[in-house]
Write a structure and sequence with these properties.
Radius of gyration: 17 Å
Number of strands: 3
Shape: globular
Distance between the termini: 14 Å
Largest sheet: 3 strands, antiparallel
Number of helices: 9
Oligomer: single chain
Helix content: 55-70%
Strand order of the largest sheet: 1-2-3
Order of helices and strands: HEEEHHHHHHHH
Length: 180
């Protein structure tokens, strides 16, 4: 699956304009919050925020900048999940999930050293990913994907517990973001 397909899937899932009172993101269109749109130069009404601007933001801020494209060269399904998680929770959160999972799966440093969980996917994270996949083979990507999704699911439950208004979104998050 290409980044163009991933972007189209996210835009289709996120839908058009929304301004749910329980959503701290406020006015949103195509899944892009007003704050993100403004930070990237969009001055207009979010009800008419252009789809092509949303797609450009997704590519630049949620794919290229966090280097999920680098992950894709090793593990495309994992990169797709990181992209989707990054859209929903922030790219640094998704990157930290990957780093935490890789650290937990390195067999106490026997396969590759632990790395800093800093939310930055660079050469160290990519080298650990390559080493993990070389050790674990084809099944490794699926296991790593499960670990990342487990961390994501746990975070959703924590968000709903810490802020009851988030319970309005919990079912949809679990139904549409975990294992999809």
């Amino acid at each position: 699956m290409t980044i163009d397909h991933l972007i189209e899937d996210v835009i289709a899932r996120e839908g058009g304009y929304s301004n749910h009172p329980a959503d701290r993101g406020g006015a949103t269109r195509w899944g892009i919050t007003e704050a993100v749109a403004r930070a990237h130069g969009y001055p207009g009404d979010m009800r008419v925020f252009p789809r092509d601007e949303a797609a450009a933001i997704y590519r630049r801020i949620y794919w290229l900048k966090p280097n999920f494209s680098g992950v894709a060269s090793h593990a495309p399904a994992l990169a797709a999940e990181l992209f989707d998680t990054g859209v929903n929770m922030g790219p640094a959160v998704a990157a930290r999930f990957l780093q935490r999972a890789l650290n937990a799966l390195n067999r106490e440093g026997k396969d590759y050293p632990d790395m800093a969980v800093d939310g930055q996917i660079g050469t160290i994270t990519l080298a650990a990913l390559a080493a993990f996949l070389a050790t674990r083979g084809d099944a490794g990507e699926a296991v790593l994907l499960k670990a990342v999704e487990a961390l994501q699911g746990a975070r959703y439950l924590t968000l709903a517990k810490s802020r009851p208004a988030n319970e309005a979104f919990l079912y949809g998050w679990l139904a549409n973001r975990i294992g999809s």
